[in-house]
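Troubleshooting entry. The earlier prediction with adenosine monophosphate gave an output that would not parse, so I re-checked the input for stray whitespace and re-submitted. Clean input:
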Amino acid sequence: MEDCIFCKIVKGKIPSTKVYEDENVYAFKDINPAAPIHVLVIPKEHTTNILDTKSETIAKIFEAINKIAKKEGFAKEGFRVINNCGENAGQTVMHMHFHIIAGKKLGEGIV
Ligand code: AMP
Ligand code: ZN
């Protein structure tokens, strides 16, 4: 997608701090971190949200999250995975992404 900032990140047209990459998935540090570790995990191929994303792609993203958690060293202490889907959830970038939040004791609330 031409005007999508995350597509531009995948293509290297906008700089990012890469955390993980494979054939289908790219992960990079969030520019405005909500915790000491805040990584965004995205499919390289553009989709808007979880509703128009194939389950195979979602599975590949979660395989990547598993690897990232172990590689970055926060698998044992725990972490949170978040997906914002649509307006009421506050989705601001319309390229499907999962947030990994880690590196501190997180609050109990989800809203
Ligand atoms: P969401 O509210 O779920 O759509 O989250 C979008 C996330 O993308 C936010 O946490 C932003 O801080 C992050 N973000 C936006 N632009 C960039 C960028 N150029 N590099 C890294 N993270 C970004
Ligand atoms: Zn995109």
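This one parsed fine. DSSP finds two helices and five strands in the chain.
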